Amino acid sequence: MFTHQVVWITGASSGIGESLALAFAGQQARLVLSARRRDELDRVAKRCEQEAGLSRTAIMILPLDVAELETAPVKTDEVLKHFGQIDVLINNAGVSQRSLCRDTDLTVYQRLMDVDVMGQIALTKAVLPHMLERGRGHIAVTSSVAGKVGVRLRSGYCAAKHAVMGFFDALRAEVEDEGIKVATIVPGFIATPVAENSLTADGSSFGQADEDNAGGMAPDKAAEVIINGLGRGKREIPVGEGKEMMAPWLKRVSPELVFRMTKNRK
Ligand SMILES: NC(=O)c1ccc[n+]([C@@H]2O[C@H](COP(=O)([O-])OP(=O)(O)OC[C@H]3O[C@@H](n4cnc5c(N)ncnc54)[C@H](OP(=O)(O)O)[C@@H]3O)[C@@H](O)[C@H]2O)c1
């Protein structure tokens, strides 16, 4: 489905992004792998070569910090110089939160918004003119069930994930008739290091696994669901296998019940 297509994945150094890189490599796509840690991107590239037989020349490693918004056009130019086109952009980089609002420094909220919202918007805006010019392209963002339902200890993360859901739904309405597909990915609990990497009240990393994520869907399985959804042109791709996947539906039919449940959930 994505053979020879140029697929740019942010957050490709770990978790869902790493599994997506392998899934696209399995289809012999050309890959642009982005995140901050170059050594981890090298490791993922090696896996794509060894496990999926992807040629090294089909992989571009492009370290970046999505929160450095001004670099988005520069990085986009680098990809276009290298591969000549961008078919798919997957805005997957992200960071979560584990802290109560009352304790959380405002700078932590700013960081969550910069990484989880503004970074995705900046890269999307940088790539969009190229896709509009070609009259084709596919843009995805990894939101979350937390982008549909608010939960304790994640007020900034929920705000960010709700924000990207709104932004990309609105973008879809603007560009779909111009040949650009927009997909919002809505994971529940996926077994990645997302909890360990979450920000606490002072901005330091939480550093601990959490039961919900550790017991969640395997990231390779999640990547399979996502790549199939993208291949079928789905506009929204729910991915997960636990009870949390019922939450967006339940909030529509019985919001009061969901508000009570989220309050009682530690
Ligand atoms: N796992 C879940 O249960 C779950 C559920 C819902 C949504 N999600 C979303 O799924 C996405 C992927 O998360 P994950 O679960 O795979 O967690 P993860 O393993 O912690 O991966 C996060 C990725 O984002 C990258 N990243 C973080 N900050 C960045 C920055 N400033 N600039 C560029 N890259 C950055 C990280 O790489 P570097 O550290 O190398 O930069 C890493 O590759 C996130 O958007 C997350 O919110 C996850």
Radius of gyration: 18 Å
Provide the list of bound ligands, each named once: NADP nicotinamide-adenine-dinucleotide phosphate
Distance N to C terminus:
42 Å
What is the CATH C level class, in words? Answer: Alpha Beta
Number of domains: 1
Order of helices and strands: EHEHEHEHEHEHHEHH
Q: Give the rounded overall mean pLDDT.
A: 97
Q: Helical stretch count?
A: 9
Instruction: Output the CATH topology.
Output: Rossmann fold
Give the second-level CATH assignment, the architecture. 3-Layer(aba) Sandwich
CATH-level-4 superfamily name: NAD(P)-binding Rossmann-like Domain
Overall body shape: globular
Structural class: alpha/beta
Poorly predicted runs: none
In terms of DSSP E residues, the strand content is 5-15%
Biggest β-sheet, characterized?
A: 7 strands, parallel
* Major beta sheet, strand line-up: 3-2-1-4-5-6-7
How many extended strands? 7
Helical percent range?
Answer: 40-55%
Q: What does this entry look like structurally?
A:
By secondary structure, this protein is α/β, with parallel strands linked by helices. It has a single domain (6-264), classed as NAD(P)-binding Rossmann-like Domain (Rossmann fold, 3-Layer(aba) Sandwich), CATH 3.40.50. It is 46% helix and 13% strand. It has a 7-stranded parallel beta sheet, sandwiched between helices. Helix 5 links the parallel strand 5 and strand 6 (180-187). The protein is globular and about 50 Å long. The mean pLDDT is 97. NADP nicotinamide-adenine-dinucleotide phosphate binds at residues 10-17, 35-37, 40, 64-67, 92-96, 115, 142, 144, 187, 189-190, 192-194, 197, 213, 216.
